[in-house]
Amino acid sequence: MKILAIESSCDETAAAIIEDGRKILSNVIDSQVETHAKYGGVVPEVASRGHMQVIVRVTEQALKDANMTSEELDAIAATCAPGLIGALLVGANFAKSMAYALKKPFIPVHHIRGHIAANYLAFEDLKPPFLTLVASGGHSMMVLVKDYTEFEILGGTRDDAAGEAFDKVARVLGVGYPGGPKIDKMAQGGDASKYKLPHSKVKDAPLDFSFSGLKTAVINLAHNAEQKGETIDKSALAAAFCNAVVDTLVPRLELAQKQTGVKNIVCAGGVAANSWLRKELEDMAKKNKLNLYLPPLSLCGDNAAMIASQAYYEFKAGNTGNTLQNAFATAEIYENICVKK
Length: 341
What we know:
By secondary structure, the chain is of the alpha/beta class. Helix content is 43%, strand content 19%.
């Protein structure tokens, strides 16, 4: 089964064609990073307009790269939640229209389910059940994947997502947007012990995260140094920040694993590309004799291949939509977002 998927939840316009949920036939991404970098973050209206300008081109390129015509597709999918609502509507409406014109099924996909599915494209042997640490720009949560379309949230952030904290700290350190890869690079070789940062815990919720205090601590440290005329060791501060984020995430994943007994561990989302996080996950998995699945860097960020992969399993479960399908700025990963009426 060959599925074309559209991803437009934030600032990447992407189209991909995946066969049977596992094989990448094409994967095209048009990024707006340079456009939004001058603003220090994503401007929703600008992102929506950017999607409209390139969505036809990336779709045509995906078909060309797969050496296919649109009539040869078996279904059309799109990210329908969560994300920037204007951006989501561009991709969802385009995909719905295409499905209607071609008389093909339309499959709405949850963005975070897609991030998890990115691992299906890299690892043929990966099957539920498994435990997933989701860490992205907008989401941080611990998810038990019971089946391909059945999810249980075991813990999550009480405030900021890990990726959002990276972007805010990057702005304070003057390295710009997007913050994740720039902070990771800056932290290499830095002395993580030079600055003391909070490693948060949530009382009575051992699997929950909190990054607001960490973000504020970095901002205050930088501002206090500036007022005193002191120079910040940016490499060391970036290293201390990465260490604090990892120490917030990995021990909770380890605790969740011990509580569930699940031996297969997955990481998903943009922060999964962070070298500090990947190393700590590898060490934790080795210590506990677990099977660890880390998506390749090319599939950590937003892309349509992961959406098409999840769409295959949504289709097999009967989760299809129609022309009345809406997009949603927020939706829990366990919700069925399909419009049936």
